[in-house]
Amino acid sequence: MIMEKNCYDVVIVGGGIMGCCTAYYLMNADNNLKVAVVEMDPGYVYASTTLSMANIRIQFSLKENIQISQYAFECLDRFEEEMAVDGDKPSISYRREGNLFLVDEDGRQTAEEGLALQKALGCQIEWYSPEQIRKHYPLYDPDGYVGGTFGPQDGHLDAYSVLMGYRAKAKFLEAKFIKDEVVEVLVDAHNVTGVKLASGERLTTKVVVNCAGAWAAKVARTAGLVLPIEPTMRQIFALDTKVKPEGPLPLTILPSGLYFRTETGDLILLGKSMDDDPVGFNFTWDRKRFEDILWPELAEFVPVFDTLKLMRGWAGLYAVNTLDENAIIGEWPKLKGLFLANGFSGHGLQQGPAVGRYLSELILGRKPSLDLSIFRPERILENKPLSEGGII
């Protein structure tokens, strides 16, 4: 353990879900470590974690992504007990109301292959026919779809409470949280030596973990790395519909990318990832986009939602990996001591626990509990994206 002032065993850049999970798992594994987490927005006003739809799902087509979610399910089931600090338990409002992916004819084969893989890994996933969809959710009009896959264990939670739970536990275990911005990762030849902060202070370390989310590429550039990550704006709209569902609606995802679910207060949350979503650090939301594009599509699938009131909206950022939309996890091969946890493309919240544990094991030289080497950074240098089947 390093004892000098401003000298750390590990410096984590970014205190969102990925940074806090990594800090927690490091400190939980070795409480003698000196770990610093540098976060420029400690109020988490612009954090992707807190601006997300806070969805947790197991329905992926890549084995490792499914396994990551399986571990997240385990962690969240015992989260409030394990993250208690001096008897104070966080409340994360974990609601397993399901995810329903609608499937059209073009997507049938991919959906069936994904369903088979998920079941082979022990996931509770069901195939719903259009008739079953109507039976479970009478407001829906599934005409034109061949069916859907439903994950009853999928759901949503209070993302801020989960983040604060990991943060509080990491602090309790004596990780240090610093309000500042990393403006440079310091390098000597092919080794990390520390970070420089906007305040002018320097932190010395041999291990830096880039958990900067949408800002990851910016941080990486200071060390000479080019990552294929773009900060891409995603918008969410909160709707008060005239006709209310009789019960909670799952997160429902159409093949077009439109998605919605019920929220507390009898509201509907709605969003859609689109090819023309702005790239950059933009947090303004667009009412016209909702009125012209999303509302007509929503009303076509849920006809009674043709009458509603837009209550509010907000925008957050996805850290989109433009190579393959999968995470980049591990040590950068050309720079010893620089670890990456980047490019989660909207899946960071649910992948935080498994990735934080994995990074801690890599840093401490321990055998990984779950092999996530498929997400290794080398594929970026080799320009070899992950395929749906996970073959590089």
Shape annotation: globular
In the CATH scheme, the class of the largest domain would be Alpha Beta
Question: What is the number of strand segments?
Answer: 20
| Strand and helix order | EEHEEHHEHEHEEHEEEEEHEEEEHEEEHH
**CATH structural fold name of the largest domain:** FAD/NAD(P)-binding domain
Q: What fraction of the residues are assigned to beta strands by DSSP?
A: 25-35%
The chain-level mean pLDDT equals: 96
The CATH superfamily title of the largest domain? FAD/NAD(P)-binding domain
Structural class: alpha/beta
Count of the separate structural domains = 2
Provide the low-confidence segments as ranges: none
Radius of gyration: 21 Å
CATH architecture of the largest domain: 3-Layer(bba) Sandwich
Helix amount: 25-40%
Number of distinct helices: 10
What order do the strands of the largest sheet run in, or round the barrel if closed?
Answer: 6-7-5-15-16-17-14-18
Termini distance?
38 Å
The main pleated sheet reads as: 8 strands, mixed
Q: Would you mind describing this structure in some detail?
A:
With about 400 residues, the protein is α/β, with parallel strands linked by helices. About 30% of the residues lie in helices and about 25% in strands. It folds into 2 domains: about 190 residues, FAD/NAD(P)-binding domain, CATH 3.50.50.60; about 150 residues, D-Amino Acid Oxidase, subunit A, domain 2 (D-Amino Acid Oxidase, Chain A, domain 2). It has 10 helices and 20 strands. An 8-stranded mixed sheet has the order 6-7-5-15-16-17-14-18, sandwiched between helices. The chain is globular and about 65 Å long.
